[in-house]
Amino acid sequence: MTLRHALASLLLLGAPSTLAAGRIPYGGELRVAHTGPAEPGEPALADSPLEATLLGLLSRPACHLAPDGHLSPALARELSRPAPQVVRLTLPSPAQATALARAWVRLASNEAPSPYRALLFPLRGEGRMLSPTGDTLELPLGFPWPDMERALCHPALAPPRSVPAALGPFSATSANTVDARLAWSQGRPYLDRVRLQATDERGLSRLWSNQEAQVALGVQTDAGTPSGAALYATYLAWSPRRVPPDFRQAVESALDREDLTRLFVRGPAVPMPNLLPPALLPVSPGARPTPPPAPRTGRKVTLVYDAGNEDQRAVAERLQVRLHDRGYAVALERLPRAELRTRWARGEYELMLHSLLLPPVPGPALAVVLDAAGRKDLLGVELPRIGALADAAARDTRARERALALAPSVPMLPLYAQGLALRAVPEVGGLVFDAQGLPMLDGTWLQPAVTGVPGARR
Amino acid sequence: MSRALAAALLLAALPAAAAQTPAPPPAATAPATPALERLAQAVATDVRAMKPEAPVALHLSGGAPELRRAFGTLLASRLASAGLAPVVLEAPSPEAAESLAREQGARALVRLGLSVEAGELRARGDAFGTWVNFWSGRTATRAPSPAAAIAQAVEADAAALALAAVEPPRTPTPAPEEPRPLRLLGAVLARLPSPPAALAAGDLDGDGKDEVAVLTAHAVHVFTAEGNLLTERSLDVLPPGSAPTREPFGALAILSGPPRLAAWSTRFAHGEMLTLENGALRGVSRLEAVPLGPDARGAFVPGQTAFAPEVRLGHGEQRLAVTSRFTTFSAAHSRVLLVHPEGSASFFSQPSVAPVPLSGLGAGSALGDLDGDGTPELLTTSPELQPSPDVLRVFKTDGSETTSHEPLWQGPLPSGRALYVVTANLDGDKRREVVVGLTKPDGTGELFLLRQGAP
Known about the structure:
The complex is a heterodimer.
Chain A: H1 3-13, E1 29-34, H2 49-56, E2 63-65, E3 71-73, E4 78-83, E5 86-90, H3 94-108, E6 136-140, H4 148-151, E7 170-174, E8 177-180, E9 193-198, H5 201-209, E10 215-217, E11 232-238, H6 247-254, H7 257-264, E12 269-271, E13 299-306, H8 310-324, E14 328-335, H9 337-346, E15 351-357, H10 362-372, H11 379-387, H12 392-406, E16 412-418, E17 422-424, E18 428-429, E19 445-446
Parallel strand pairs in A: 1-9, 1-10, 13-14, 13-15
Antiparallel strand pairs in A: 2-3, 4-5, 5-6, 7-8, 8-9, 10-17, 11-15, 11-16, 12-16, 18-19
Helix pairs in contact in A: 10-11
Chain B: H1 3-13, H2 15-20, H3 35-49, E1 56-61, H4 65-81, E2 86-88, H5 94-103, E3 108-117, E4 120-129, E5 147-155, H6 158-164, E6 184-192, E7 196-202, E8 211-216, E9 219-223, E10 229-234, E11 250-255, E12 260-265, E13 271-277, E14 280-287, E15 290-293, E16 296-298, E17 312-313, E18 318-319, E19 328-332, E20 335-339, E21 344-348, E22 356-359, E23 365-368, E24 377-380, E25 391-396, E26 409-412, E27 417-424, E28 433-439, E29 445-452
Parallel strand pairs in B: 1-2, 1-3
Antiparallel strand pairs in B: 3-4, 4-5, 6-29, 7-8, 8-9, 9-10, 11-12, 12-13, 13-14, 15-16, 16-17, 17-18, 19-20, 20-21, 21-22, 23-24, 24-25, 25-26, 27-28, 28-29
């Protein structure tokens, strides 16, 4: 047998059309259609799962949490604790360190108020006095807070994409195209390019059915539709000084969360009876219905909601109807999200719908919720007690217990929690969600072409 | 493999011996209790559960004689501790063991077949009472109890594999040219805290046996032939690379005269030349070229788990005629194999001649002389992106006897992605062993050893 004959046997064993020699293939362009904005805003405002996903293509926070809780660096090259009360971030360059510090200082200041500032509350000075040293950012803690690193992985803590030093796995080459960033510290994405197409729901259906999109983000859920963890939580907040004391009772008695998630909210959504979403605080069955207060007429309130969130509009209208039966004449006012947050920070609202992307860790999530509810005063009491527990499971349990205990005392009612659902064609491989419930497009790849199997879709 | 080596490995596996040696670091070790011990314990528990009457006869079949004897010794020890007065029988077959057990006065018989399959050491068989009712006459009827089926398996380790691989004594008539069929048995050699990025094997300490070196994204680990961690060195002192890869990837080679280890992970801007001194790795110089092999240098494709199509051989500037990027490089006996990303390959019988194009190869491919005939075989994993399970196949690269299009051997690998394969001389004989680097689903790594088993 000749050498060529002996080796020719290998030829018979392969199926070349689907082979990749066991390694994930590089290259290709992924066409992604979505129902989000063409250009997501700054991280603290681009906090819906869809916007956070789009923003994450271009600007990443310091770290990344996998679904199994494993933390890995993202923008930061390294996260460490040189001392128990100090978190140290090593960034790729001084420019990234400066950009990150500025973004966090802005978040914690009155310049761009956001409930996500609560994630930085455990820092000494609540993160208002950060200054990097070269490519290093040292974060001294005001009290023990072992969950600090996990909190820093929140997408709202990424530098704004408009900052030149912002880094993500992709870089924008045009309004709707992002290219793989070769120098991304966690490794360049497998894809060469992602082409993004913003559209509405009908457009999304059309692009999908016409096979013009390989991934559709923000679809309605069917059986088997992949979706991320439901951590985008929506609350009804009120100003205690501007509504009657029995308002909570009135809303509780009028509210049917199942009804909201089934009929008024699109995408994957679950009723949220507790301050934390069911993904963080499992719902215990058998909650007793709240008896309605004696109806009184003539009480006028205004409910402000996010103009960029269609689900909030539907829910606001539903609340308007339901509260009418309880004697409340609810006027609706839609506001841009930035204006909504400004009103929230000033306390200038009677009723407000609040949607927050909560971190996948109960302690930091509770911090965000309490701040959003206007009870920032509780953070200094509750967080040190949670952070004092060294065991992560014990901290999570304590945070859940405190969420249950504090629920009646915060002027905010949980309504529902949403996740992000998507569809992808079979040739898209490696599409998984992170712990935050966001799809990791930088980890996807296009499978080698399969001949003779015309575009079956899942 | 020599009997002495097998015995040495077995002794090393026993707890008493292990207790005298320093505990290996927890990051990269084989299971603490030897596989034979664990299997003997599991089978003894099964036997005790059926409450047999002493004395209990044991009959073992399958596997190499050394494996049977070692397991018989351990199992008998366990049963003796339980007061079952075990007797190990030598009978030509399990059927013959039944009458032999009765002749020797045993009141119960345990018949087990031993094997090493798919990385597991397995014992399967039955156990029953040998008491015969007086009224049965000459017919050896069975009693209703005790009776049980036994099927136990534990993850094999290097010591079990060494015993299973012991050759039977050769007949005095010389038959050196008779080809021996290739049959590989596998077991876990070592566990890694993170997935491998490259593998290499070579004699770093001059003891005549190869060490296995593993590059992970951030460190280099060196293991002994027995799978014990000899040393490890973090590479984090090196400056970060400008185009790292998402998956661990790099190049590792063991250079001769004096032995050195050349390592380069894509996480870092350059590689490092290391030497093994007093059991520790020490950096001696900076690497500027990617070490594809002891005598080959190349370059990475920036950001990708692939090498650029440029290979320089030897100390000069001889270039290999490569036209496309490749993910795997292997050289042996002046032959060179390059595996390309889509599963094709270029095989050079000599560096100076045109390559033979191949297809259907996996990234885990290597050249190595497994049968000791002086000609390297080609080893390759599955070409599919996500095979389940992955399969290692061995092909001839040269032949003069029969025409065959079948692999010399093929067998499944444990779960995980098998992207790295290297051959090593772990026992000093002519036949090289195979080490497969696996990326496990839980994000760790594993070295899986395959060596020639007893026919």
